[in-house]
Amino acid sequence: xxxxxxxxxxxxxxxxxxxxxxxxxxxxxxxxxxxxxxxxxxxxxxxxxxxxxxxxxxxxxxxxxxxxxxxxxxxxxxxxxxxxxxxxxxxxxxxxxxxxxxxxxxxxxxxxxxxxxx
Length: 118
Hints:
Low-confidence stretches: none
Distance between the termini: 12 Å
Helix content: 55-70%
Number of helices: 6
Radius of gyration: 15 Å
Mean pLDDT: 88
Strand content: 5-15%
């Protein structure tokens, strides 16, 4: 998958997350402490990727660029474990910079998944 698509996915998904964050902060600003809100947003960040890829094989960014995640093993929808590994790899700082170095993202490498055009 071309590296520029990964960057586009990142920016689209980040924009979606930012919009969600702004709405959430406005709605909960009086009922949550800032530390609770931080924890909630960190959880939601990972939850967004996990649920989107588990249920649909794609995030909003991937949907808009007509790409999706599949398993290398069987070319079908990734397993629960594969999506969990992909999601956890997002906690590695600058994980997306591995693409130019090893030819694919660390989250694809460790989860045995690839991104394809649909």
